[in-house]
Design brief:
The protein is built from 14 helices and 25 strands. The chain is of the alpha+beta class. It has a seven-stranded antiparallel β-sheet. A six-stranded antiparallel β-sheet has the order 1-11-10-7-3-4, covered by helices on one side. Strand 8 and strand 9 form a beta hairpin. Helix 6 runs antiparallel to helix 7 (about 435-445). The two termini are about 45 Å apart.
């Protein structure tokens, strides 16, 4: 589509009641990100109330009409998906605006390939629109879904705002409150959210109507010096709370359990879903399927979270296990069935489950695809420990193009299930305490060593031959086993992101640096050739609220894992004060942390933290070369076996990332947030500063 164009959805597909709207962008450097938001507007072009504003801190509508599903990595960027159920949109809502905003100093002109894609329930893309003229804008309206004569249409908008999300929100009837929070608890201290620096610098949208508490939106989005579009009114003053609040109070559970009343450690707490008695893979599959589907049906937020990405409507959900379905002379029994009813219509998904690292079988999944097509079901969902990768399907199936009814195949990893449960009970909250407890019991079951639901746990049969080939220098470029190891490494990195993101309540995404237009197979083949030549696997993770990108490198020749982060030098001050402040921020970091000064050209001074603590000045280049930043690194021995045992490679990567984040990255992010709050307080009490702002 071109800017300003519009099209009726009914002309593009027969099944547009449920849509998947995807916003994507890329960056050659791996930097830059944006947050998606959706606004529901009435006939006057304004929101009806604050509940019509959906963003990262208010991600889902109670009626299921809108749900923000979060980001997924692409070849050289990320894609943010929104599930929109048009059949659930209230009748007095005339349009839905789909937008995105950047925080901090980010501008959309710094990103490439800004694009919105709309797909129907089956995942088939219906239309796309690319924004090619982005510049200094920090917020953009990508597109709009609107009613016209009883039909839903899409308009390609492409309007930018230099005033960020605050200016955009003001345009649609959301005023901005400058009232300060009464205390730390009201501001939500200690619960930083993605898109803000430990919660600092968020914009508050006050309650417009109804009982809900005010919603928060990402920072930046204070009025900028660059003028906004002429149609945009001047935004109201911006308040900057210490941390975000959710739009509606929900129940979360503390990370630290209450003190046990047991007499000694041998007493085991009673569990709703016991796992120790499971003895066979069949038992594990049946128990895991039944436990998961039962909790999905009883906890609406959780069930909707997992099925919205597959095109399920928001409605009454029921789940079933071991259902017998006819299939010629041999009836089939999928592990589970999910049915959602809305307005008299049924949406049905067949579920095939594997646990304990067992692989999915193509012929089995093919049978379920054929059964679903004949019976008019919508989806087949596979669920296993494996992690799906773009361009590398876990099972190969054939689709009969002659059939009018379309069936889509989707995959879930047990790691993704645990990730979503942890986000809800630890960070985002659910409707009541009973639901939170149910999710906690589910999470405890999934994490039990005997459940078989541990996510990606095996680097595959190619791991040992590739490792030995690198050790003996006999592995040649073009070896398919190296490609298999690269895919396993990528699955492991995705799982690390899911686990860490669930624990932190923040977006954690792998950074993939590739030339624009590079397909996944070519990208992985190039990485495999590099592995053969250098003997090293590497990855980068972008974690919200952290000062840089966390890098992981596994050197198969030396058997060492390196975790590191590069932080830029401050824009103001003197190099010696930078070095002293850095050492002070790392007061609790391990003594063997390597610190290296980054300069243009030659490598700068470096040393362990133990040596630098008494003499931070040793970090300064002797010749006065300008400092661009610092690199902090920890080294750890690499596990050799392909599994997740104590001596396994996967376990060693998990431990290395956890240790580095807890002891190095988190203190840096926390001290940075404290310094920013201190700077704001100082600025607010400075008479000269007050005179300027007045």
């Amino acid at each position: 589509m071109t800017k300003g164009g519009n099209v009726g959805l009914a002309a593009l597909s027969e099944d547009t009641g449920s849509l998947m709207v995807s916003l994507s962008w890329s960056s050659a450097s791996g930097d830059g990100d944006a947050d998606v938001s959706v606004l529901l507007l009435g006939a006057d072009g304004k929101v009806r109330g604050d509940a019509d504003f959906y963003f990262y801190n208010n991600p889902a509508a109670a009626d299921g009409s809108v749900q923000l599903l979060g980001k997924t990595p692409t070849a050289n960027g990320s894609e943010d998906r929104v599930s929109i159920d048009l059949t659930a949109v209230p009748q007095d809502v005339e349009s839905l605006v789909v937008a995105a905003s950047q925080y901090g100093a980010g501008r959309f002109g710094q990103l490439d390939d800004l694009r919105v894609t709309v797909a129907d329930r089956t995942g088939e893309a219906l239309l796309g629109f690319t924004i090619a003229d982005a510049g200094e804008e920090s917020a953009f309206i990508f597109g709009e879904l609107y009613r016209r004569a009883g039909e839903w249409k899409f308009r390609a908008v492409g309007q930018g705002y230099a005033t960020g999300l605050a200016g955009l929100a003001t345009d649609f009837g959301i005023s901005v409150d400058e009232e300060e929070p009464a205390d730390e608890e009201e501001a939500g201290a200690g619960a930083p959210h993605p898109g803000t620096a430990a919660g600092a610098g968020a914009v508050q949208a006050p309650t417009l109507s109804g009982p809900e508490a005010a919603a928060t939106v990402p920072a930046a989005e204070a009025p900028a010096a660059v003028p906004a579009p002429s149609a945009t009114p001047d935004p109201a003053p911006v308040r900057r709370p210490r941390g975000p609040r959710t739009a509606k109070k929900k129940v979360t559970l503390p990370k630290v359990a209450k003190k046990s009343l047991a007499e000694n450690d041998s007493w085991r707490q009673a569990r709703l879903f016991p796992a120790p008695t499971l003895k066979s893979d069949r038992e594990r599959e049946m128990r895991a399927t039944s436990v998961l589907l039962a909790v999905m049906a009883q906890v609406p937020e959780f069930g909707r979270r997992l099925t919205a990405a597959f095109g399920a409507p928001a409605g009454r959900m029921q789940t079933f296990t071991e259902v017998t379905l006819p299939n010629g002379d041999t009836p089939r029994r999928p592990d589970g069935v999910i049915r959602v009813e809305r307005a008299g219509k049924l949406w049905t998904a067949l579920v095939e489950t594997k646990t304990n690292g067992n692989p999915l079988k193509s012929e089995q999944v093919q049978d379920y695809m054929d059964i679903a097509a004949r019976r008019g079901y919508e989806v087949v969902i596979t669920l296993s420990n494996d992690v799906a990768l773009e361009g590398s399907p876990l099972v190969e199936v054939k689709t009969d193009g002659r059939r009018k009814h379309k069936v889509t195949l989707w995959h879930l990893s047990w790691a993704e299930v645990a990730h979503q449960a942890q986000l809800l009970i630890r960070h985002e909250g659910v409707g009541d305490a009973a639901h939170a407890w149910l999710l906690q019991e589910l999470l405890h079951y999934l994490q039990h060593e005997n459940s078989g639901c541990h996510g990606f746990q095996n680097m595959g049969p190619a791991w040992v031959p590739v490792r030995n080939g690198i050790d003996t220098d006999t592995l040649c470029q073009g070896d398919e086993r190296a490609v298999a190891v690269v895919e396993s490494w990528e699955r492991l990195v995705r799982q690390v992101c899911l686990r860490l993101g669930g624990e932190l309540g923040q977006k954690v995404l792998p950074v993939q640096r590739a030339k624009r237009g590079t397909d996944q197979a070519s990208r992985r083949a190039a990485l495999a050739d590099r592995l053969c030549e250098e003997g090293r696997l590497s990855a980068e993770l972008r974690i919200d609220t952290t000062p840089g990108i966390l890098a992981i490198a596994a050197d198969l020749r030396t058997g060492k894992l390196r975790t590191s982060i590069e932080i830029p030098a401050p824009e103001q001050g003197y190099p010696l004060s930078w070095a002293k402040r850095l050492v002070r921020q790392l007061a609790e970091a391990p003594a063997d942390l390597h610190v290296e000064t980054l300069t243009e050209g030659n490598r700068g001074p470096r040393g362990t933290l133990e040596r630098l603590r008494p003499e931070p000045g040793d970090l300064l280049p002797k010749d006065g070369v300008p400092i661009s930043g610092f690199r902090l690194s920890l080294f750890k021995g690499m596990g050799s076996t392909r599994g997740n045992a104590e001596s396994g490679f996967i376990r060693s990567v998990d431990e290395a990332v956890d240790r580095f984040y807890a002891s190095v990255v988190a203190p840096l992010a926390q001290s940075g947030s404290t310094e920013r709050r201190s700077a704001r307080r100082t600025s607010a009490t400075d008479p000269a500063e007050a005179a300027v702002t007045g």
